[in-house]
Amino acid sequence: MAKRIKLAIGLGSTCSGCDIAILDLNEKILSLVALADIVFWPTAMDFKLSDLEQMQNNDIDVTLYHGTIRTSENEHIAHLLRERSKVMIAFGSCACFGGIPGLCNLTNKKEILETVYKETPSTVNPEFTTPKTKIAQDGHDLTLPELFNDARALPQIIDVDYYLPGCPPVVELIEKLVPIIANFLEKGELPPKGTVIASDKTLCEQCPLTKENKMISRIFRPHEIIPDPKRCLLEQGILCLGPATRGGCGARCINARMPCRGCMGPTAEAKDQGAKMVSAIASILGVENEKDLSEGDVEKLMSQIKDPVGTFYRFSLPVALVNRRVKEGG
Ligand code: SF4
Ligand code: SF4
Ligand code: SF4
Question: 192 alpha carbon to ligand 2 midpoint, in Å?
Fold first, then answer.
C-alpha cells in the first residue's frame, strides 16, 4: 500500500465555513484523500478530544487548524495539536489573523455576558445566571471551557509553520496543498517556514478593474451607488480594501461587483492592514481647497466612513498593532 500522511483538521472558535471550503474541493478532494489518512476531523467524523489526547507527539504529519482562540478549550486543543503535529497550518482568516470573531476585542467578556444573558429582549434571567466554568459531576469537580476576554489568532498561541488565509480560503488555494503534501510525503521537503499559501502581490495588482489615479471627494456605501463595472471601485468612492489586502483569492468579490472586505489579510509588506488602508485612503481622498478646511469639515469628511475599525480591521484586529479597546472595569 502506498505511503500516506496522517492529516488532522482541528478547530477553535469557528463558523465551520472552513470545513465546508475543504468539502468544496468536490472531486479534487480525492487527490487529497489519495495522499492522506484523516486521523482527526471532529466536524466531519466522530472524533473526540480523548482521541487526540491518546496520540503521541508528532503522530500527526499535517494539521490544518481553523478558527479563532476564544476559550480555554480552544487554547488547550491548539497546544495539543501542535505537540501532536509535525506541520501546523493556520487555515482561514480566523486562525491566521483572528478573523471576524476577533472584533470581540472591541468589547470585553463582562459586556458580552451581560448582553447575551441579561439584556437581549428575549432573555428572562433575573438572577443573571451565566455559564459555569466548574461543576460537580459524580463526586468530582469538572472544569468547563472558559470564555477569554480577548480573541487571539493561532500564531499568538502556538508556533505556526504555514498560513492559508481567506474567509474561507478559496478552492484554488486549498488545491495548492496537494503538491505541498505530495512533496512532503515523497521527498520530506517543505516550503520555507512562514510561507503564506497565497500571492505576494496585493489584490489591486490582480484586480481586473481599471485604475485611473483619480481622487475622490466622498465615500459611498455599496448600496448608495451603481458603480461603473469597469472602473476601480475605490476610485468611484466605494471603500475597497484591495490596496491593503493580499492577493490570491481570484478577486472573487470584485468579480461579483462588490468591494473587497480584506479577508486575505495584510499584504506581504504591510503588517497592519488597517493602517495601510487608512494611508491608501488618505492619498486618494481629496477635495478642492483642502488646506482651507476647518476641523469640523475634516470630521464631516471622515464621518462618511461608517464603522472604521470594523471596516479596516474586519479580519485582522487581534494581530493589529493596537489590537483591543480597553474599557474601565473590563
Ligand atoms: S475564516 Fe471565515 S469561514 Fe473560516 S472559520 Fe473563520 S469565519 Fe468561518
Ligand atoms: S481598490 Fe479594489 S477595485 Fe480598485 S483596483 Fe484595488 S481591488 Fe480593484
Ligand atoms: S476580494 Fe477581498 S474579501 Fe473578497 S475574497 Fe478576495 S480578499 Fe476576500
Answer: 30
Q: In terms of DSSP bridges, do strands 147-152 and 140-143 run parallel, antiparallel, or are they unpaired?
A: unpaired
Kindly give the distance from the C-alpha atom of residue 261 to the centroid of ligand 3, in angstroms, as a whole number: 6
Angle at 260 between CA 257 and CA 264, to 5 degrees: 135
For the chain, give every domain's residue range. 5-101+149-187, 108-147, 203-319
Q: How far apart are CA 79 and CA 93, in angstroms?
A: 19
- Along the chain (330 residues), what's the average pLDDT of each consecutive run of 10 residues? 86 96 87 90 94 96 97 97 98 98 96 95 94 88 92 98 97 93 91 97 97 88 93 96 97 96 95 92 73 69 85 97 78
Residue 24 near ligand 1, beta carbon < 6 Å = no
CATH superfamily to which 5-101+149-187 belongs: NADH:ubiquinone oxidoreductase-like, 20kDa subunit (3.40.50.700)
In this structure, are residues 198 and 265 in contact, taking their beta carbons and an 8 Å threshold? no
